[in-house]
Predict the structure of HNH endonuclease.
Amino acid sequence: MASSALAATYNMAAPILPDPTLSPGDVLTSDPAIICKSGYTQTVRNVPQSLKNQIYKAYGITSRLPGEYEIDHIISLELGGSNSAKNLFPESFKTQPLNAHVKDTLENKLHALACAGTITMQEAQRAIASNWTTAYVKYVGPLPGGVSPVSSGPASPPVPTTVQQIPAQLQGNASMAPLAGGSCPPAAPVKLSKAGIYHLPIGDSKYGRTHATQCFKDAASAAAAGFRGVK
């Protein structure tokens, strides 16, 4: 009974989609060589409570229960989204069947597709910024409960780019993690072997049987990281 009473106090009319006039989406970078590095999101996540309060106020949310909302990145950090107010909106964990947990599933799927080179990072960014419920159907499958995508009203404006400083440790060698089975994504086809030797996809007889431990966009990037090619 207590849990039912608590559920009744949640705002079940909380916005599923962001208001494009308030927060159309914004990106920090679209470079998969930066975004797809392990640990990237921890280096750029920075949304102070004062900014979160500003977002709640802009959306007219004057009260909330613990655990009811998160201030969500419309274009998630794992897709290169920024911490700008233009990329933030209050998303409920409690609305049913669509909520922050469902959007998280899409974010993970788009990250995997973009980092594998199946789609471009820009495609992923625009899909989730335009209407994440529509993108879910396209890239994941039917929405929970069999519901239809939420109407987004007028088309969102093009996703702008915020100029921010990319952490130095994420610049430079343009490396990416290998795919399952030891292959490399199209964006970084140069394979690094366990022996610390890089192999090129063209003209290298050992390339096909090399199980990559790291992938680089080109030979120059691998050499800049301190590795050598086949003699």
Observations:
- The two ends are 73 Å apart (CA to CA).
